[in-house]
Specification:
Number of strands: 8
Radius of gyration: 19 Å
Structural class: alpha/beta
Strand order of the largest sheet: 1-2-4-3-5-6-7-8
CATH class: Alpha Beta
Largest sheet: 8 strands, mixed
Distance between the termini: 46 Å
Number of domains: 1
Number of helices: 13
Helix content: 25-40%
CATH architecture: 3-Layer(aba) Sandwich
């Protein structure tokens, strides 16, 4: 990657011809100040920019179709897309296709974060896809519907969940084309995208509601799953005479949201013993999503007896991508190992 350096700005990066076909999916709906920031601002090494861009360059050069519309029609659905990233190496031995009697490979569907206003696709989508490709897994990055500006009436939700369901239906319909199997998939996400992924296991908005197979596991990075904690933070800011940014909550529940109305989308209130196994990673110094969200999720998983692995570090902040050089370095490999362990255990029990 001689042409891209830590000093390269996001805008400059998206102007590179070798990335053009996917550059619209690097950072969506971004403001000018973000566009002009260098990659080092986000952590060039930490986020795995070099590795990710090398993979994207190879995908673009392959000439294969990478961008797939999730819907065939619908004005507000035009931007809902899947970026397909096929694997570049053999599957890990423990994921051999005979485990489920299916010749396809288990896939990961990744939901980038961005407070439901935008998507940090390069850091929180394509980077994980590139790493999963290197480990031998097919990956899809989902660009779901978002809402950038007020008013938020009606609210954005549940449109992103509908998009997730439609994406899985599309993948299942074209499983042979993509070389994947319908069973044993995992849904991953970061921040708001992790909230979306976590919703997929709930009793009120999850896979069962859409008549689809459940995932073998959920892989969640700093998930914003608890609306109560965000509501508490807004109330605390008000008590201190500070103005709280509640746009995230408005996207979930509309302009006239209440603590009670928001709970429809508070994952911890809608989990049961059929919730999928979870790998969760977060950092205690995250300034955007309270680490309490991860702890609340862990508590519910314990109560319900759901298998999980928690990788919670003291330092690492928010939007750490692959987390290279941080205390969570190696988390994608750990998450993939957990996912495959869940597949093997499921195969062993015949469930």
């Amino acid at each position: 990657m001689n042409q891209v350096t830590p000093e390269t700005t996001i805008g400059e990066l998206c102007g590179h011809e070798e990335f053009k076909p996917l550059s619209d999916y690097f950072f969506t709906n971004m403001t000018e100040d973000v566009w002009n920031r260098p990659l080092e601002y986000y952590g060039f090494e930490k986020c795995g920019f070099a590795e990710t861009l090398e993979r994207i360059k190879a995908l673009v050069a392959s000439g294969m179709p990478l961008i797939h519309p999730v819907y065939q029609e619908g004005d507000d659905k035009e931007g809902v897309k899947l970026v397909f990233m096929p694997p570049v190496s053999p599957m890990l031995s423990m994921t051999s296709s005979h485990a489920s009697g299916n010749s396809g490979k288990p896939y990961v569907l990744i939901c980038p974060g961005g407070a439901y206003a935008r998507q940090w696709g390069l850091i929180e989508g394509l980077a994980l896809g590139a790493r999963m490709n290197r480990l031998g897994y097919p990956a899809f990055v989902l660009y779901y519907r978002t809402a950038q500006k007020p008013p938020f009436d009606p609210p954005l939700m549940p449109k992103p969940i509908e998009d997730l369901a439609a994406a899985i239906r599309l993948i299942e319909h074209r499983a042979e084309d993509f070389g994947v199997r319908k069973e044993d998939y995992t849904v991953a996400g970061f921040s708001a995208g992790a909230h979306l992924a976590a919703e997929w296991g709930t009793v009120n908005h999850g896979f069962a509601r859409y008549g689809l197979n459940g995932p073998a596991a959920l892989l969640l990075g700093y998930p914003s799953i608890s609306t109560d904690l965000f509501f508490d933070a807004a109330e605390e800011a008000g008590r201190k005479g500070q103005e709280a940014d509640v746009s995230y909550l408005k996207r979930l529940g509309g302009g006239s949201f209440t603590r009670e109305s928001l709970r429809e989308y508070s994952v911890d209130h809608h989990m049961d013993r059929n919730y999928p196994p979870v790998y969760v990673t977060a950092c205690k110094d995250d300034p955007i999503v309270p680490v309490g969200c991860s702890y609340r999720l862990i508590g519910r998983l314990r109560e319900l007896g759901i298998p999980f692995v928690a990788n919670i570090a003291e330092h690492g902040g928010h939007s750490f991508g692959l987390g290279i050089g941080t205390k969570v370095d190696g988390w994608p490999e750990q998450a993939a190992g957990f996912w495959q362990q869940m597949i093997m255990e499921k195969a062993g029990t015949g469930k």
